[in-house]
Amino acid sequence: xxxxxxxxxxxxxxxxxxxxxxxxxxxxxxxxxxxxxxxxxxxxxxxxxxxxxxxxxxxxxxxxxxxxxxxxxxxxxxxxxxxxxxxxxxxxxxxxxxxxxxxxxxxxxxxxxxxxxxxxxxxxxxxxxxxxxxxxxxxxxxxxxxxxxxxxxxxxxxxxxxxxxxxxxxxxxxxxxxxxxxxxxxxxxxxxxxxxxxxxxxxxxxxxxxxxxxxxxxxxxxxxxxxxxxxxxxxxxxxxxxxxxxxxxxxxxxxxxxxxxxxxxxxxxxxxxxxxxxxxxxxxxxxxxxxxxxxxxxxxxxxxxx
Length: 306
Ligand code: BTN
Known about the structure:
The protein is an alpha+beta fold and 306 residues long. It has 8 helices and 14 strands. The strands form 3 sheets. It has a 7-stranded mixed sheet, sandwiched between helices. A 5-stranded antiparallel sheet has the order 13-12-11-10-14, with no helix packed on it. A two-stranded antiparallel sheet has the order 1-2. The protein binds biotin.
């Protein structure tokens, strides 16, 4: 109902009477009034006049009703420990494919290799629960698809030079604008769920805590609508994984990466290797040529361009 009321406000662009809303939506004027009060409590600037109600300006909100086509699968929380925790609970309870958990900020946001992901207000933090019908060995392709779709969308929406860095970071002018973390639950031959968490620096200023990071606002010099970015990303990513053959993901990803053919340092829990990144295989494994000419395959790790 809240989404439908907002839709009418946006269409009418002026004062809308209680009668009109109640007639169009088939509910009583008292019910409309209660929904308007709720929307005001959620921060929407709606004024009540003798002629009716008016939405004065729209806010950049991520409530489920802001995504009318997927409202029942969106969960928004102003503050969480980590969207990965909530998505994990929902997935274990059997939530459906493409359930999305969004947070305004995270108190214990986490990154790959047990790093902290600083998650202050202004950034975009969400986790998507996927239930793909694929064997576990192919699951990493979804992470590559996620970073590829996001990098292409950032280029298209904001005309910025967004590139992917192995495995799934997105850089603009060599500064990190987004990171992706995935958690998989699988049996030997079947994926039960894959939760992919996205941290995108949108209107926050991450450089104070992460000197090599940047945000859309820092690059573009203006505030960006998180809702519009998220809405477009969800549509693009869902359509990509439903329609595109995942066999082609890595070859397309390679066209948008800055990692290949350069010297890199790879840090894992166990060791550090340095060499030239000569390729990424069809499952996302990085192929390194070490100084002595030998080849090393790296499945996971932190990659530094040196
Ligand atoms: C990385 O680059 O190390 C990955 C960062 C992933 C951060 C996102 S923010 C939403 C989701 N919740 C988390 O706690 N982490 C991921």
